[in-house]
Amino acid sequence: MPTEKAPEMPGGKAAADKPLRADARRNRDRLVEVAASAFAEQGIDTPLEEIARRAGVGIGTLYRNFPTREHLVEIVYRREVEAVCAAAGELARQHPADVALEQWMQRFVDYIATKRGLSTSLRILITTNSTLFSDTSGRVSLALRGLVDAAVADGSIRGDVDSSDVLHALWGIYSAPDTKDWRDRSRRLVGLLMDGLRFGAAKGP
After folding, report:
1. Cα separation, 105 vs 70, whole angstroms
2. pTM for this one?
3. Nearest to 150 by CA among 110, 200, 104, 83
4. Tens-digit pLDDT string for the chain (205 aa)
């Protein structure tokens, strides 16, 4: 896919490096939020004009923040990694260990959906941005490990569970055919996976 570049804008890179005003920051955050949803729903070829329209800004605002489609993809991907990792800690504080694990895995389905939508551009970024994946690799597995270890420790899931096996099962969802009911089917699979993790647990049936 050819890289989409922004039209020439006054101010150039120096303008882009200036600290953002509060309203500009809100616009940028809204663009990233909308782009993540659009890419998950429609894939990487979602028109940037549609993303700008859904975010309630002009296309010039989008290009001032994200000079190319790949730049937007990178920011969306980093945001999704941050969000799914942060969710692990939030859920652990709010729920029993096994419930936190199950809800996080359901949140992981949304993360996978976005990553599937970004897959074409992510493959391009692998060759052009060597730090993107080194910066983010391992963070998701560490987040899951903490949740699994906590659930094993309190006896709410089986004691022989290894977090790497759980992650392997979750990534199996990623490779499933892209059908209209993929997300609903994936959520049901997470429920089945949790049933297996709970079966035979110290606190289980």
Report:
1. 28
2. 0.79
3. 104
4. 445 555 443 344 434 445 567 888 899 999 999 999 998 888 888 999 999 999 999 999 999 999 988 889 889 988 999 999 999 999 999 999 999 999 999 999 988 888 888 877 777 777 766 577 767 778 999 999 999 999 999 999 999 999 999 999 998 888 888 788 888 999 999 999 999 999 988 776 6
Q: What is the dihedral of CA 37, 48, 17, 3, to 10 degrees?
A: 110
- Cα–Cα distance between 10 and 130 in angstroms, integer? 30
**Dist. CA 51–CA 55, nearest whole Å:** 6
- Domains of the chain in start order, with CATH, are 12-65 (1.10.10.60), 72-198 (1.10.357.10)
Per DSSP, what are the bridge partners of residue 68? 5
